Amino acid sequence: MAKFRKEGKKEVPQVSTSSLPDIVYMLIFFFMITTTMRDVELKVKSALPKASEIQKLEHKALVCSIYIGPPRDTKLGTESRIQLDDAFARPADIADWIQKERDSRNEADRPLLTTALKVHKDTRMGIVTDVKQELRKVGAFRINYTTLKGSVLEN
Amino acid sequence: MARKTPEINSSSQADIAFLLLCFFLMTTSMDVDYGITRRLPPPVEQNDDEVKVKERNVMNVMVNKSDKLLVNSRPCDISMLKDIAKDFMTPHPGVETAPEVETKHFDLLGDVLMSKGVISLQNDRGTSYAMYISVQNELARAFNELKDDLAMKVFHKHLDQLTEEQTKAINEAVPVRVSEAEPVEYSNH
User: Fold this and answer.
1) Nearest to B141 among A26, A49, A52 (CB)
2) Partners of residue B188 in chain A, C-beta under 8 Å
3) How confident is the model over B135-155, as pLDDT tens digits?
4) Helix spans in chain B (H)
5) Between β-strands A81-84 and A63-69, what pairing exists: parallel, antiparallel or unpaired?
């Protein structure tokens, strides 16, 4: 056995582990960015009005958004449309959609579900009122008119 | 004689990681949403059992389809709405035309004079959303200023410096009494 052992140091130098934390950090950031950033593709124009008396919309998991505004595709006219998830919808579709949103959440979280209305500022109130009436019917009372920070005089 | 593999210099690893981190920090839009939070009233079953509110207790705010504001049947500008609403909701004991007042006791605040006033908001289907938000915002601002005034009077602090319990008490003493009328169509367009 001894004759196989050479007198020189032949062992592979130890792999440096000092960069391991950095690699882990990179992975963490990668996942942080890719997992939560699921956003819908907007089919309607979105220019929010400005307001000053606003609260932060906390707990993003408990928020579902309804977009209302004129379609981006100019062939569809300028009349404001409702967008739920990735598709245009009619006010009558809201009840089913809210039910779907509720089902996808924890039982305990369901009463806390907030509907964020992201409405283009030039939209007429008629369609917004229709949406609100639908929300009242299905018991989704917590709503939030999403706005930008600013003064109302700039609206 | 095996050559010793030179160790890879890892001192720049951290720099690379920081570069990546900075890149993602700059490019991601962690868009935090802000907005006016409201609670919708439950649907009404019957229209005939309407709640009767005395006329002196109601301030009517109407917005028509060309975004013109009418407060108690008088034309008004959006910049004046906050002061009118604030003045209306401030208790004026002994004034016949102002809303009724009542005294309520709160554990943290002591006896507080509360107005029985209600602001009724009515808009047309043709009103623009920007105008609607402006009106909602100005009314909210009026209530927030009233809350702030009360906080200053009782705790000698601004509303945002209070503890959670104190804020809760203030919110109870100054309820946001904005009622939205059931949608009606005024104009045929």
Assistant:
1) A52
2) none
3) 999 999 999 999 999 888 888
4) 13-27, 78-89, 129-155, 164-173
5) antiparallel
Name the residue among A132, A126, A134 with its Cα closest to residue A145: A132
The structure tokens listed for B153 are 């009077």
φ, ψ dihedrals at B183, nearest 5°? -60, 130
Reported as half-sphere exposure (CB side, CA atoms, 13 A), residue A21 has a value of 5
Sorted by sequence, the CB contacts under 8 Å of residue B56 that are 6+ apart come out as B96, B97, B98, B99, B100
Residue A144 class from Cβ within 10 Å (0-12 exposed, 13-18 middle, 19+ buried)? buried
In this predicted model, what pLDDT tens digit does every residue of B7-51 receive, in sequence order?
777 667 667 777 777 776 666 656 678 888 888 888 876 555 566
Of B171, B160, B17, B174, nearest in space to B101 by CA = B174
Collapsing DSSP states into helix, strand and coil, what is residue A63?
strand
Does the distance separating the beta carbons of B38 and A128 come in below 8 Å?
A: no
**Contacts A9 to B, Cβ<8 Å:** 4
Compute the nearest-CA separation of A43 from chain B (Å).
Answer: 19
Buried (b) or exposed (e) across B108-133, using 16+ Cβ within 10 A?
Answer: ebeebebbbbbbbbbbbbbbbbbbbb
State whether A55 and B127 contact (CB < 8 Å): no
Task: Name the residue type at position B8.
Answer: I
Q: Report pTM.
A: 0.77
Residues 6+ apart with CB under 8 A from B8: A16
Question: From the centroid of its chain, how far is CA A126?
Answer: 26
Residue A1 pLDDT class (50, 70, 90 cuts): low
Contact B36 A145 (CB under 8 A): yes
Q: Does A129 touch chain B (CB under 8 A)?
A: yes
Q: Give this complex's ipTM.
A: 0.74
Secondary structure element (H or E) that encloses residue B74, with its range: strand B74-76
Break chain B into its structural domains and give their ranges: 57-180
Domains of chain A in start order, with CATH, are 50-154 (3.30.420.270)
